[in-house]
């Protein structure tokens, strides 16, 4: 059977282009990140060979498992999953160029320590919980500025943007509120002129809501299902895991 990845990719790129056009934005103002959790390396390879350059993984284990097959094809990997502090050392082994899910100070401090030790730097996005759901990771919107001020003091971390997962809802206006909130936080942070903080990227929008996210200013959309098909694991497996330990910390 033909791999539908190529057709799906074409369709997603069309959706992104149409959404940009409808919002009066240049077509190249939105970058596609392939959300590749559970997707086997050879199917990711198909997408990379078709010209894609950015993937996002949720688990260090998966990055490790796919590393060898993918390393011959130039691309960037962003970490988009919940990151436990005991996985920091591992995630730094695999050429991850940005951690989009930085959402708490203890993680930032431990990351900073490790990067300093290795003499390296890392781009990060601050993940914000714009839907106010307990099941989602991310710093509370009202805590974002405070966290960013603290992360800005970490010399080896470079804050490049914000990331969020919108509310899962058929009510588009409720979804839109999440994205608008993230954009508002970006504007607020930029108006503070915090040294070392360059809030250019807004990573928001997925298979079901990328048009709304683009209307509200997304610069990166993260798409999995619409390209690679349904996953067998529920997303709660990726998004709620470790929640208990997070509440303790
Ligand atoms: C899985 C995932 C996506 C992609 O979601 P789809 O609905 O499959 O497009 C985006 N962002 C994060 C953080 C994810 O875990």
Keywords, please?
249 residues; alpha/beta; TIM Barrel; eight-stranded parallel beta sheet; 11 helices; 8 strands; 42% helix; globular; disordered C terminus; binds pyridoxal-5'-phosphate; PLP-binding_barrel; PyrdxlP_homeostasis; Ala_racemase_N; Pyridoxal phosphate homeostasis protein; pyridoxal phosphate
CATH-defined architecture: Alpha-Beta Barrel
Series of secondary-structure elements, N-terminal to C-terminal: HEHEHEHEHEHEHEHEHHH
N-to-C span: 48 Å
Shape: globular
Question: What is shown here, in short?
Answer:
The modification N6-(pyridoxal phosphate)lysine is found at residue 37. With 249 residues, the chain is of the alpha/beta class.
Summarize the SSE layout with pairings:
Layout: H1 5-22, E1 31-35, H2 41-49, E2 54-57, H3 60-70, E3 76-79, H4 88-91, E4 96-102, H5 105-118, E5 122-127, H6 144-151, E6 157-163, H7 172-192, E7 197-203, H8 210-215, E8 220-223, H9 225-228, H10 236-239, H11 243-248
Parallel strand pairs: 1-2, 1-8, 2-3, 3-4, 4-5, 5-6, 6-7
Task: Please characterize this protein's 3D structure.
By secondary structure, the protein is an alpha/beta fold. The chain has one domain: Alanine racemase (TIM Barrel). Helix content is 42%, strand content 18%. Strands 7-6-5-4-3-2-1-8 form an 8-stranded parallel β-sheet. It is globular, with a radius of gyration of 17 Å. The model is unreliable at 242-249 (pLDDT under 50). Pyridoxal-5'-phosphate is lined by residues 35, 37, 58, 80, 165, 206-208, 222-226, 235, 238. The site of pyridoxal-5'-phosphate has 15 residues, from strand 8 and helix 9.
